What does this fold into?
Amino acid sequence: MTPRPAGFRIAAGLLLALTTRAPPLHGQGPDTDRARLAALRLAPPPLPVDSPGQRRFPETLGELNRRLDSLAQIPAPPDSYGRMFLEGWGLIAGVEVGLLTVTLLMPSSFSGWDFEDGYVKDGLRHLEEAWTKPPVWDTDHWFHNYVGHPYGGSVYYNTVRAKGATPMQSFVFAGAMSFWWEYLLEAMAERPSIQDLVITPVAGALLGEVVHRTTIRMRRNGTSALEKAFILVLNPTHLLRCGWGPL
It folds into this structure.
């Protein structure tokens, strides 16, 4: 056989390579396999199941709603004590100014306040005496001193206790409100009372904490009519600030 030139052999090999098709990769034809190969090259590698960068999304609307409900149950952070104090003082001041006005309109035989020279003149004189003379031991009825003032102190106490104040912070607030009443409001009618300055915050804090804890226990599973009456009478500022629905 006559040997063929080298150039002829090279040209024949190139022609054979261009005209010969590669066998299918997966038995489905060359076009399909090439498309899959290109997709595999372009797609990013899958994240492992435990990868911290992997994000999981709720699979159902019910799961999403359960997550939103759990977030809604997280309690909001309590207000600062300064804000509690100012809001509580505003509430107490409004109620007591109205109470003082009603008391001034009552007969002196009931209130024990006597204004011989008129409200303004006698009121300023009494106010001056309150700030320049020591408090006195009053002779009010025992019910007024030892039932009324502890109850009032309890209301003071729970005005901020209901909003998240600590027992000590609530006691300080009760003492401040007692001072406010004795030396600014009631001082226009009479000298501050020793019993009232002591009994109102001290007995009020003791009674107030019992009332506060009882109120919380009542509200955990909803309140009955009797329990609502208890909160209305003994813990009115809690009702005004927090309601009486279930916790």
Notes: The longest helix spans residues 194-219.
